[in-house]
Amino acid sequence: MVGSISDGPGPESDTESGRLKQWLLLDGNRFVVAAILAAAFGIAYLVLSVSGVAPIADAQPLFYAFSGLISGNFTLITVVVSINQLLLSQELQSPGELESEIEETVDYREEVEAVSNRTAPAEPSGFLRLVVESARRDAQRLGGTTAGSLSPDARDEIDEIVTELTDEFDRIDGLVEESDSGIFNTLSTTLETNFAHEVQRLKECRREYGEDIPGDADAAIDDLLDRLREMDIARQYFKSVYLQIELSRLSRYLFYAGVPEVGTAIAALFVMTMALGPPFGRPVRAVVFPVAVAVGLCPLTLLFSFILRTATVTERTAAIMPFTTPEQEI
What we know:
Helix content: over 70%
Structural class: mainly alpha
Oligomer: single chain
Order of helices and strands: HHHHHHHHHHH
Number of helices: 11
């Protein structure tokens, strides 16, 4: 079934909880999501310490907490190394494999260019708009070839499919035009778009009314199915490119956040090893240590925010046409 993204008419996206969920999972800046989560932890710890519910009278438990944060962030560094090894293993290909991959990509672009009779743009947003434009044109051509040549039931069924597809193509094209040209912004316009049911309905219509469908309409159905396949190929390819870029950025950002955090935690440990305890009173201690713990959690919240989006993207694009999954039926 054709779905809708946050800007569209989807019922879940029209609610406050739906918009919040969409922002948290996909639309929100990942650094903002991570900062909000870290600040929430910091405020919670601060409230507990200042209110006296968890007074920091004994520094020994904090010693274990900061030690755990240090060891945990070293584990994150291991995760970063593993991510880079994964990305590197995908990039290390033989000349023959590279040549085959390039040839297949070029063949796909040439197929799209032959249908549209235009040179395909190099950037993802322009390429997607070209594919959508070709699909819209073939959908409208199918609607035109069935006018007056089919039984009312068959014509109504095809007209309904064509209308739904055309509306979805217009929605995607509008979102791409309004958004930035980045790979994620382009990919996000198709995350809740699934044409599996439309493909099934077209094939069922052809099977049921096959004898009544004229040759030009039958050819238009084939062309429209090809355009839908091309759109799904583009989406899956953009997803693979996005995931490589996102995971590469994540590994770098974790290093950026992990080094200051380890430095902060080690500094806190040095302060707590003083013979007479920390060189500041309990009121200052009740503020400084919760803030330091919140800073120590920043790498973890950053990892959470990025993996949350990459996992959501993967879940919503798991099946390729003509299959679908409940998770893609948003």
